[in-house]
Amino acid sequence: MYGNVGIFAWTLCYIVVLLGLSFYGLHRYFIIYLYFRHRKQNLKPQNRFVELPVVTVQLPIYNERYVLERLLHAVSLIDYPKEKLQIQILDDSTDETRDIAVRESERLRQAGFDAVCLQRAGRLGFKAGALDVGLRQARGEFFLILDADFVPPPEILTETIHYFTDARVGMIQTRWQHLNRSYSWLTRAQAILLDGHLVLEQTARSSTGRFFNFNGTAGLWRKSCIQEAGGWQHDTLTEDLDLSYRAQLIGWRFVFLVDVVTPAELPVEMSAFKTQQHRWTKGSIQTCKKLLPRIWMSKLPLWIKAEATVHLTSNFTYLLLALLCVLLQPSPIGPFGIGGWLRVCLIDIPILAANTFAAAAFYLVAQRELYPQRWYRDIFFFPFVLALGIGISVNNARAVLEAVFNHRSAFNRTPKYGIEGKTRKAPAFSYSAFKAVLPFGELLFAVYFAHFVIAAVIAREYLSLPFLMLFEIGFTYVAFCSIGDRVRRWPEKLVPVR
Description:
Order of helices and strands: HEHEHEHEEHEHHEHHHHHHHHH
Strand order of the largest sheet: 3-2-1-4-6-5-7
Structural class: alpha/beta
CATH architecture: Alpha-Beta Complex
Number of domains: 1
Strand content: 5-15%
Number of helices: 16
CATH superfamily: Spore Coat Polysaccharide Biosynthesis Protein SpsA, Chain A
Shape: globular
Distance between the termini: 53 Å
Largest sheet: 7 strands, mixed
Low-confidence stretches: 332-338, 493-498
């Protein structure tokens, strides 16, 4: 009796997890539908400023010695009147970046720019705290915010500022481009993952009046929008997402410009990539807990509330994916006698269509829209992209649980090295990323799925092999790359990154 109850409970959990994953998978199809329905909207500024407003360029940095000079050089080339431009270097660094920031700000002043280097004694509030300090001392009506690894094009302000002639517009987001997309398989996969979000999700939500978020950089804010929404707050790790939702909740309109691109550097180390993903995932769930009740208590239309809910809860899929890995053994389907072609038709094909096929379609569409002449070259690379998404599920599931149970952690920034294309400019990787024991857990999952792969081969269940291999490749790649990062750094004296 107790054995049957256990089997039933296990099977029920398995089905609930599959249904949850399938829901978010099917939502990708909905985003694709919205994108194609509204992608041809001709978005133009309502008017143009007769006299250009003052813009403050905010550059929040922390230990960025490899990329700061590149950033400031690009900022100095922005096509905008110098008298209308203020440059704020918001420097919380603890290494020689502080000296570089002071030296470069002086160089900018000698070139005729209104440039200031604001250096805090501590890191209260991390990036949000630095931006808040800058806001209080800014003379600009609008803010262009750029992370240290971005290289703004000269025309970034001339192509964006005039959208603020609409008094309802509070934020403008440009699309990220990737300086080192071709550096490695990891950066290539990251570029594809980000393109899906930036091209499809941001366009679909923006063009239909749904809530979408400032991506933390390469965007512009209206000062009064920030102030009316409650300012920069640091009770979540995604201050950008938090402020975005608070601003839209009080009626501000956001604009996403898919055709205005700002190049940036992708993390080149697995540990750095996982640090970034951990912060984004944890911060999104923190924001979900903070704002979702307020969203549902508002007078917003139901369809906006529903999309906001899916958006803010989407990272729970990593927790569901990690649970799926555990629930695969023992198999919950076997005890009920469902096997062979019946299982394939009732379980495998529907789940593949709702999840794996949805993810592949989502990212393929984004590549086709961005690179219509060569998108097909990435088709054979997509299994690796999907495998990478699976491989980081343990890392991100941990982030979800930390947010759910209110585990506090610092704002762990992502190391940058000034890498473009396949050329490594930095002499050595001397910034360490977030450390954890997770790589060994991921290695255990790799061994765990190797068992499934071998069992499937022995049982001649070849239809399940592609699905199982995605998990095996994903966990193996992430685990060995993470452990490799540690081994490579073991003899080095590292600069801690927090």
